[in-house]
Amino acid sequence: MAGIQLFTDNEAVSENWTADVQNIVSAIIQEGTTNLLKYSHANLVEIKFTEYDSTIQVIIKDNGLGMTVKRQGASGVNGMENRVLEAHGKFTIKDKDGVVIIVELPKELIK
Questions:
Q1: Rounded distance, CA 98 to CA 42, Å?
Q2: Could you tell me the end-to-end alpha-carbon distance of the chain, in angstroms, rounded to an integer?
Q3: For residues 27 and 2, what is the distance between their CA atoms, to the nearest angstrom?
Q4: Which of 11, 90, 95, 98 has CA 20 to 30 A from 77's CA?
Q5: Distance of alpha carbon 96 from alpha carbon 109, whole angstroms
Q6: Cα–Cα dist 57/12, whole Å
Q7: Distance of alpha carbon 94 from alpha carbon 111, whole angstroms
């Protein structure tokens, strides 16, 4: 990944996740890492998956510059957030010492 060290903790990744959950997690990771490569100037990214009784948590963290573009104009971030909220999940983004994206999704998505 363009000179970036990638660390993953994927012990919680389950083949039992529904296709909807897998698709959302995949899209979040894709958009999050695309933004990372374009804007952050990071040299380290961590992706962590944690599975709880009824939810799945995905954390993407980098050590880059942080959010240098106002969030309202960041269509990729807004797209990630909308996708998660439509699935009745929670989306949190923190901008300190890089960017941390925290996504929580129900294991069984509500339509």
A1: 8
A2: 35
A3: 20
A4: 11
A5: 31
A6: 9
A7: 28
